[in-house]
Design goal:
The protein is an alpha/beta fold and 252 residues long. The protein has eleven helices and eight strands. Helix content is 40%, strand content 15%. α1 (16-27) runs parallel beside α2. The relative contact order is 0.15.
Length: 252
């Protein structure tokens, strides 16, 4: 059975001290052995949060990275730097990176391959806009992103990769795909992975749902057979809400 992964994406929120306090509140007495929990603070807080999560069940991740180990890329962060700060995961291809910073599938693919080569576990984000869904193109868009972003990624590397389906129209809007709609897309993604890598690999890849995940919808989402966790935005900024999401009821 796939180990569920609940990840908190703090986006561009929290000063160093605020991040330290939030991480401590999340980590306090957190005990699970049947799920994995990850927090992704802003770059400026990674070192401080690392000191908090050491010795706890919390894993540490980053929200983005450059593909190069080093170089004249002013303002960028390399995979080596993330590893040095104790990161084990990195979010790549988030819709906000695509929308506001012009990242396309080819660039995201380059980052995914670099992350894997440097021992980081990428959380590859895919998702459609409302216009694309309304036009009936949701699966075409999402599955196209999956295929392009995984080019030259090997079957062996897929064991270290997580996919996050985040319908763009649901991120930060309060709207959430119904559990049935989310399951339908997750199943389509898994079928595409089976086409690319075979059913054995596809069955092992974790696929998260993201998009206005809250304490009151997490249980229904996690009851779906192909939803293996959540990439949580706003609700991860409140320790109580995030802890409730982490404590979702496992499907039988």
């Amino acid at each position: 059975m796939r180990l569920p992964l609940i990840a908190g994406n703090w986006k561009m929120y929290k000063t160093v001290e605020e991040a330290r306090s939030l991480a401590q509140a999340v980590a306090d007495d957190l005990r699970f052995d049947d799920r994995e929990v990850l927090i992704c603070p802003p770059f400026t807080a990674l070192q401080a949060v690392r000191a908090v999560v050491e010795g706890t069940p919390l894993a540490l991740g980053a929200q983005n990275m450059h593909w190069a180990e080093q170089g004249a890329y002013t303002g960028e962060i390399s995979p080596l730097m993330l590893r040095d700060l104790g990161c084990s995961y990195v979010i790549l291809g988030h819709s906000e990176r695509r929308q506001y910073f012009g990242e396309d599938d080819a660039l995201i693919n380059r980052k995914v391959r670099s992350a894997l080569e440097h021992g980081l576990r990428p959380i590859l984000c895919v998702g459609e806009t409302k216009a694309q869904r309304d036009a009936g193109n949701a699966k075409t868009v999402v599955l196209g992103q999956v295929r392009l972003c995984l080019e030259q990624v090997t079957a062996e590397q897929m064991h270290s990769l997580v996919i996050a389906y985040e319908p763009v129209w649901a991120i930060g809007t309060g709207d959430t795909a119904t559990p049935a709609d989310a399951q339908e897309m997750h199943e389509a993604i898994r079928n595409t992975l089976a086409d690319l890598y075979g059913s054995q690999v596809a069955d092992q890849v974790r696929i998260q749902y993201g998009g206005s995940v809250k304490p009151d919808n997490i249980d229904d989402l996690m009851a779906q057979s192909d939803i293996d966790g959540a990439l949580v935005g706003g609700a991860s900024l409140k320790a109580g809400d995030f802890r409730r999401i982490v404590a979702f009821e496992r499907r039988s």
